[in-house]
Amino acid sequence: MYFIALTIFPEMFDLFWNHGIVRRAIEHKKIFPSAVNIRDYTKDRHQVTDDRPYGGGSGMVMKPEPLAAAIRDIARKQSGTKTVLLTPQGQIFNQEMARTLALSEGLILVCGRYEGIDERICDDLIHYEISIGDYVLTGGELAAMVVIDAVTRQIPDVLGGEDAAEMDSFSDGLLEHAQYTRPEIFEGREVPQVLLSGHHREIENWRMESSVMRTLLKRPDLLQKKSLNRQQRDILAKWRHKIEKILDSHK
Ligand code: 4FV
Questions:
Q1: Is the peptide bond before 192 cis (omega within 30 degrees of 0)?
Q2: Which atom of ligand 1 is nearest to the CA of 114?
Q3: From atom 11 of ligand 1, which residue's Cα is the shortest distance away?
Q4: How much is the pLDDT for 127?
Q5: Which among 30, 65, 74, 89 counts the fewest CB atoms within 10 Å?
Q6: pLDDT at 172
Q7: What's the confidence (pLDDT) of residue 93?
């Protein structure tokens, strides 16, 4: 899969390409990422990429010409790419979108700066507007890295066996279960015995209960919009019963 980040700060991606799972995915030729400087598509010797907003007001806006030239040139060279604008105006990014985007041949990620980009680029040359959250960044580069990281994890065989994507939080719409590693006792606190038992069925049941209860306590909205299977409903029913017994004892 191709990732082409369009930015005036391509060097921001240097470290990102060279670490962890993204680096390994590059080495295993699962992803082909690059950062392209929008300034390379300017025609003036000062390589100007921004200008004052029509209608006045503070801040600057990214000029349409260099962006249009860059997007068209890259899309011509790399067929099958979809163009993504990182913007607070976009759809809030989530795991479902990461899975969907991982099916495409490539993404051109437009990283805005200043107050944003000329609207005429959005009208004609942008397939998806994506936001990583309801807050304002100084630039789209960090948001592009978030999207590239999450999408790369969804590409088959990028994650080795030890951390397969289907074990992820949100992979089945729930938060991930609690995780423990050595030592067995840390500052007097023990690892749940079932995890040391070797009983895989019991460990799976414990992990599902941990996942359901963490989701209930931390993100009940996820439980609302998810279809629960029999095991998950039984877990909630068990806890409802426990809570009702306590309430009954206080009548
Ligand atoms: C953003 C976000 C974001 C807005 C103006 C860059 C900044 C500046 N991108 N999710 N939230 N972008 O704040 O994606 O151009």
A1: no
A2: 15
A3: 88
A4: 97
A5: 89
A6: 82
A7: 98
Q: State the pLDDT at residue 155.
A: 96
Nearest CA to ligand 1 atom 6: 139
What is the chain's alpha carbon radius of gyration, rounded to the nearest angstrom? 23
Minimum CA distance residue for ligand 1 atom 9: 87
pLDDT recorded at residue 161: 61
C-alpha to C-alpha distance for 17 and 31, rounded to whole angstroms: 10
Burial string for 86-122 (b: 16+ CB within 10 Å, else e) reads bbbebeebebebbbebbebebbbbbbbbbebbbeebb
Strand partners, 3: 33, 107
Instruction: Give the separation between CA 170 and CA 166, rounded to whole angstroms.
Output: 9
Pairing state between β 2-7 and 50-51? unpaired
Burial status of residue 205 (CB atoms within 10 A of its CB: 0-12, 13-18, 19 or more): middle
Low pLDDT (below 70) residues in the chain = 161-169
33 in Cβ contact with 137 (< 8 Å): no
Round to whole Å and give the CA distance between 160 and 166.
12
CA of 207 to the centre of ligand 1 (A): 37
Query: For residue 221, how many other CB atoms are within 10 A of its CB?
Result: 9
Give the pLDDT of residue 166: 57
Q: What is the pTM of this model?
A: 0.93
Among 24, 65, 115, 129, the active-site one is 115
Q: Which atom of ligand 1 is nearest to the CA of 116?
A: 15
**Cβ neighbours of 41 (radius 10 Å):** 20
Contacts of residues 74-80 at CB distance under 8 Å and 24 or more positions apart, as own/partner, are: 74/4, 74/6, 74/36, 74/108, 75/108, 78/2, 78/4, 78/105, 78/106, 78/108, 79/105, 80/104, 80/105, 80/106
